[in-house]
Amino acid sequence: MTMWIIIMYVTLTVTGISLLYLSNRVCQFRITDKIFGSRQRLKACFCTALVFSLFFLICLVLNFMNAIVCAVYFAMIWLVCDALIALITWAVKQYIKRVEKKEIREISVYIAGIAAVAYSLLALAVGWNLAHNVVKTEYLVSSAKLPQEITIVGFADSHIGTTFHADGFAKHIDEMQAQNPDIVIVAGDFVDDDTSKEDMIAACRKLGSLQTTYGVYFVFGNHDKGYYGALRRGFGAAELIAELEKNGVKVLRDETVLIGDTLYLVGRKDYSVEREQRGNRQSMAELTAGLDKSKFILVADHQPTDYANQEKAEVDLVFSGHTHGGQLFPFNQVGKWIGANDMIYGHEKRGKTNFIVTSGISDWAIKFKTGTKSEYTVIRLVKSED
Question: Which of 3, 93, 102, 195 has the CB geometry, 3.0–4.6 Å to 161, for a possible disulfide?
Answer without folding.
Answer: 195
